[in-house]
Design a protein that fits this description.
Helix content: 25-40%
Distance between the termini: 46 Å
Number of strands: 12
Shape: globular
Structural class: alpha+beta
Bound molecules: biotinyl-5-AMP
Order of helices and strands: HEHEEHHEEEEHHHHEEEEE
Largest sheet: 7 strands, mixed
Strand content: 25-35%
Strand order of the largest sheet: 1-2-3-7-6-5-4
């Protein structure tokens, strides 16, 4: 990886678990796929895979994640001793860590968007993909993939269909960022937040995540594969469900979906 040096990164990395073992790749199909293969072959918790570019980067539900050179595309392998439901909380661990890091490092107007996005000025700068491998309700490992649009201009590097909804750090700041510093800060922050989760302090994670959740208290549309709802976003509850007050006055919990702000 040209702009991140393995040696200088690992030197002085203040993490408990993350980054003891880091795989730096120039090009890979997906860091999550590579991470899953490593985990299945016994890679230790905290192993990290980072690639300069992905040829088949993935989002949820098999959607494509565009991963041009200049972005930060990485995955971490976790082996939490918890059930599937609790492991699903890792999306908030990663989301909060990304939001906090981007806010602290660059002073950007960062928001979290349920369930797995981080936005700057209302546009997606980061997506998170958590994939859990289980045997009979027992979690064998979780791969948490994080994609951050860093050093490229979306208008040039992403398809035209994403231009209105996506942004990048370079686009927002007007200059490139030091990828190695960002990567280090992210690993340290995710490590801290994961520690809170393991130490049974999930409430502080969820509350922290909600402080960045600009959609709360606003009119939103939520769609998933089968339904579409509109209403007021009231809360994200302890189970991670979005709580809506529908236009009919009824309260509805939604577990899976994508939200957008209602324009009218
Ligand atoms: C996500 O899915 O946002 C999760 C993205 C996770 C990417 C990381 S990169 C490292 C690791 N390896 C992987 O293969 N994946 C992870 P979802 O919420 O389903 O959003 C996907 C949608 O975001 C797509 O359908 C597009 O509309 C949009 N999109 C694709 N590429 C984008 C980009 N670079 N920036 C902003 N939006 C993008």
């Amino acid at each position: 990886m040209s702009r991140i040096s393995a040696d200088s990164l690992q030197e002085g990395l203040r993490t408990k678990r993350f980054g003891r073992s880091i795989f730096f790749l120039h090009k890979i199909s997906s860091t999550n796929d590579f991470g899953k293969r490593l985990a299945a072959h016994g890679a230790i918790e905290g192993t990290v895979v980072i690639a300069e570019t992905q040829t088949s980067g993935r989002g949820r539900l098999g959607r494509k994640w565009f991963s041009p050179i200049g972005g930060l595309w990485f995955s971490v392998i976790l082996k939490p001793s918890m059930g599937v439901t609790k492991a699903a909380r890792l999306v908030f661990v990663a989301g909060l860590a990304v939001a906090e890091t981007l806010n602290n490092a660059y002073g950007l107007r960062v928001e979290t968007r349920w369930p797995n996005d981080v936005l700057v000025n209302g546009r997606k700068v980061c997506g998170i993909l958590t994939e859990t491998n289980i045997t009979a309700e027992k979690v064998n490992f979780v791969v948490v993939g994080v994609g951050i649009n860093a050093n490229f201009i979306p208008e040039k590097a992403l398809p035209a269909t994403l231009r209105k909804t996506s942004t990048s750090l370079e686009r927002e700041l007007g200059h490139k960022v030091q990828l190695e510093l960002l990567f280090r800060a992210l690993l340290e922050n995710i490590d801290d937040k994961y520690d809170l989760l393991v130490g049974k302090n999930y409430s502080s994670i969820l509350e922290g995540w909600k402080k960045y959740a600009g959609f709360l208290g606003r009119q939103v549309e939520v769609s998933n594969e089968t339904r579409r709802f509109s209403g007021l976003a009231l809360d994200v509850d302890y189970e991670g469900a979005l709580v809506l007050r529908l236009d009919t006055g009824e309260t509805k919990r939604v577990l899976v979906g994508d939200i957008s702000l209602r324009t009218k």
